[in-house]
What we know:
By secondary structure, this protein is of the alpha/beta class. The protein has helices spanning 37-50, 69-81, 107-119, 140-154, 175-191, 198-211; strands spanning 6-14, 25-33, 86-92, 128-134, 163-169, 227-231. The chain has a single domain, classed as Nucleotidyltransferase, domain 5 (2-Layer Sandwich), CATH 3.30.420.
Amino acid sequence: MTAPRTFNVYCDESCHLEHDRIPVMAWGAVSCPAEDARAIAEAVRALRAEHGLAADFETKWSKVSPAKAAFYLALVDLFLNDERLRFRGLVVPDKGKLDHVRFGQSHDDWYYKMYFTMLRPIFTAPHRYRIYLDVKDTRGGPKTRKLHEVLANSLYDFDRECIERVQQVRSHESELLQLADLLIGALTYANRGLTTSTAKTAIVERLRARLGREALTRTSAFAAVKFNILVWRAQEAAG
């Protein structure tokens, strides 16, 4: 019988607003065993120091630049080489095709469904999970509680034994949340077909070289556990 373990899951999202004029939106999560989270964070901090970056430098996709490309590529390699780290993502290629009225739901209703759809393959009995979300706005508290409710109810986890917590953290305080931001940024960039930044394009190409040419733009095979994504198309789903 498999002994229960606890896993940390660091979640973020990109271009998730309904009317921001960006067609692609994405969710993503970096997960690792809870007992390894501190050691992995320390490895990221050591990598940051090795590249001459300040101790309080926050890793973000929006900060990727040619001057820091070597650090970001090394961070991608750290993720790819560490078997304790995994990534799960969900991409909506064109949110302009969403029809919430047809399915009798609000954008928020759909948002929580997609969050569960993204996270569901991570959850495996009898393990326990602690989910950490980036603080984004003043609605964060209610959204966090609602997400915990949706996840627990969807898994029939009414006693919150599987999903131990869903908690907000500030991204500058979590190296693993920052890593999630970086990978989600690469996922969104690839699905938008952008090549406007040499540094960002280099990160996408590094991921493709290690994971496969279509790893960021096509739904992953079931066996893909290191980097697994779902490309969700509105016309293929019933809400």
